[in-house]
Specification:
With 427 residues, this protein is an alpha/beta fold. The chain folds into two domains: 329 residues, ANL, N-terminal domain (Rossmann fold, 3-Layer(aba) Sandwich); 84 residues, ANL, C-terminal domain (GMP Synthetase, Chain A, domain 3), CATH 3.30.300. The chain is 29% helix and 25% strand.
Length: 427
């Protein structure tokens, strides 16, 4: 059933006092740790190895006693103990859905009726009467269906468009008088440019007035273009696939992203795992406390940010994320998906023709681009065939397409190199 009252989203959790929030999160954390220790073998092993009893995790500060689990750890855990790496904390038959993220990492979901994700859409102004086009993938990626349900929870009509097919996107937005866009900022810019190439005046001919973004950074320049040139009110959310949802989201003030109270969010020193103070830049680490399905404790996102504690004038009182400023690990987010260095290394090392490689992530016309630089052992190899096979295998493995493959001369790529180089500028 859709929620129609603001009070049902702008609720007691969002307006708790700092003391009330601390008590709430500590209580939920203790409950989460106790349940995961009893029911998820990997969590029991982690605590036992750290010499920590569940009863010793009483506060958010106590999380420093536990190690950080990263994407690469999840991949290895699920390889060693398929399918969930020992992190499933409910009986397998209770799992409602299984999603897949690059790695691969299987993510069990069991949360019917939980509407926390919709808070971010409600804060972005999605309401009954809106028609929202959802351009995230609906396949085994969690984004499509979870965002779809959040749109419906706000009472809005959802169009399950998915990715690609810009001309069809344009026609659908026009025919159905779409008022809301859900996707990445770069894809909305692509759709707008496509509409203009088809002879439309986007601001005059289309009805889109609001946009909800996640998956990539919303640069100040793109936000200014969308809001000033096209009169589209933009909001962004910080979502992480593995913990299962939106971690932080913007309100109408657009002054940082409010932490969701369904998660404990730490900003830590990636080297020590110690929590940092407000204003200090560190890695975002997330522990879900909203359900007992997935025993994921202290998941290191690899994203770097800081937080502020001052209450927002919108009335929400949670700490706020100041924005993503970089990456702490070897995983780089491109067009909303992570490209992981270890994953790429395994793929390219399986090709006997390749001597060295380097992935360059750049940005052109508000769109992320991947260029693969290749040195071949045999310069006479069939480059056309190799190009096709590499593109297909890379897309199958990393779920994202290479934009360009450059075959470079021997010695062009140094022995000591970064496998993935992020050259993007967010000016």
């Amino acid at each position: 059933m859709a929620i129609t009252s603001q009070d049902e989203y702008f609720d007691k959790l969002e307006t708790m006092t700092p003391d009330d929030r601390e008590r709430y999160q500590n209580d939920k954390l203790a409950e989460t740790i106790e349940n995961a220790y009893k029911n998820a073998p990997a969590v029991k092993e982690m605590l036992d190895r750290a010499g920590v009893k569940p009863s010793e995790i009483k506060t958010v500060k106590d999380l420093e006693k536990l190690p950080v689990t990263r994407k690469t750890d999840l991949i290895e855990m699920q390889k060693a103990n398929p399918p969930y790496g020992g992190l499933l904390a409910i009986p397998p038959e209770e799992v409602e859905r299984i999603f897949l993220s690059p790695g691969p990492v299987y993510e069990p979901i069991q949360h019917s009726g939980i509407k926390w994700f919709a808070k971010s859409f409600w804060a972005a102004g999605f309401r009954k009467g809106d028609v929202a086009i959802n351009t995230f993938a609906y396949h085994m990626s969690p984004a499509g269906i979870l965002f779809h349900e959040a749109i419906r929870d706000c009472g809005a009509t959802a169009i399950p468009m998915g990715t690609g097919h810009t001309e069809i996107q344009v026609k659908t937005m026009l025919d159905l008088r779409v008022t809301g866009f859900v996707g990445t900022p770069s894809f909305l810019m692509t759709v707008i440019k496509q509409a203009e190439e088809m002879g439309y005046g986007f601001k005059k001919d289309f009805s889109i007035k609001k946009a909800w973004f996640t998956g990539e950074m919303l640069s100040p320049s793109i936000r200014e273009t969308l809001e000033k040139d096209y009169a589209i009110d933009t909001r962004q959310a910080y979502a992480v696939t593995e913990p299962g949802g939106a971690i932080a989201y913007e309100c109408h003030r657009k002054d940082g992203m409010h932490f969701m109270d369904e998660y404990i969010v730490e900003i830590i020193d990636p080297g020590t795992g110690k929590q940092l103070d407000p204003g200090e830049i560190g890695e975002i680490v997330v522990t879900p406390i909203h359900n007992q399905t997935w025993g994921l404790i202290r998941f290191g996102t690899g994203d770097l940010s800081s937080y502020i504690t001052k209450a927002c004038s919108c009335g929400r009182t949670a700490n706020r994320l100041t924005g993503i400023v970089g990456r702490a690990s070897d995983a780089v987010k491109v067009r909303g998906l992570f490209v992981i260095a270890r994953q790429a290394e395994e793929l390219f090392s399986s090709f006997s023709e390749i001597a060295r490689y380097q992935l360059i992530v750049g940005r052109r016309q508000h769109r992320d681009e991947i260029t693969l630089r290749l040195e071949l052992k045999d310069t006479g190899a069939d480059k056309t065939k190799l190009n096709d096979v590499l593109n297909r295998r890379f897309q199958d493995t990393c779920r994202i397409k290479i934009d360009k493959i450059d075959f470079v001369a021997p010695g062009s790529i140094p022995d000591e190199r970064q496998c993935i180089v992020d050259e993007r500028s967010w000016e």
